[in-house]
Design goal:
Elements: E1 12-15, E2 18-29, E3 35-43, E4 49-55, E5 61-62, E6 65-76, E7 79-84, E8 90-93, H1 95-98, E9 110-116, E10 119-124, E11 128-136, E12 149-154, E13 159-163, E14 171-175, E15 181-184
């Protein structure tokens, strides 16, 4: 069991049989009263973020989240289809479960999936991923690393801001949390 002071950002907890991850927290204590922990927590099943306040005496149940590697196969009307690499069983995750991570999934690639009570619930993307620049304005002589940015369409279908020296066909790394350009890929 967790105490309220154990509720740090990234902590997984279970409430009413559903897994949540703490994404924001603020502890406060007033006079004679016990401490109070205000949190925002993301439901790992549907991606919704909700606020909640825990009192000093509350006992919080940890959520047992396991990670297993699975291969992304394809997306169809059922959702995002994966294959478990241990027993080769195929399963689908809904668009709600995958959320924004779905735009980064590439056919045939392996990803870490979160499991709760033996059931896959979500995709855990790496922080940095490589993509190819599909379309961008051509660079001009004199463009430098600190000279500004321009939009670039990536092969996964999203648009990010890249430095002026990046050209079509180049591989780049982006941060999947912030959608920021990180560096050129080798």
């Amino acid at each position: 069991m967790y105490e309220i002071t154990d509720l740090k950002i990234g902590t997984n907890i279970a409430i009413d049989g559903e897994p949540f991850r703490i994404v924001w927290n603020q502890f406060s204590k007033t006079g004679r009263q016990g401490g109070v922990m205000a949190v925002k927590m993301k439901n790992l099943l549907n991606g919704k973020v909700i606020p909640k306040t825990f009192q000093g005496a509350d006992k919080i149940t940890p959520a047992e989240i396991a990670m297993k590697t699975a291969q992304f196969l394809y997306k169809d009307a059922m959702g995002f289809n994966f294959m478990n690499l241990e027993d080769f069983e195929q399963f689908a995750l809904s668009e709600d479960a995958v959320g924004a991570a779905g735009q980064f999934l590439q056919d045939g690639e392996e990803y870490d999936l979160m499991y709760f009570d033996g059931t896959p619930i979500n995709v855990n993307l790496p922080i940095k991923m490589e993509f190819t620049v599909k379309e961008t304005m051509p660079g001009v002589k004199g463009d430098t690393a600190s000279g500004g940015s321009k939009p670039a369409l990536l092969d996964c279908g999203i648009t990010v801001a890249v430095p002026l020296f990046i050209s079509e066909g180049e591989k780049i790394r982006i941060n999947t949390d912030t959608l920021d350009y990180v560096e050129r890929a080798n």
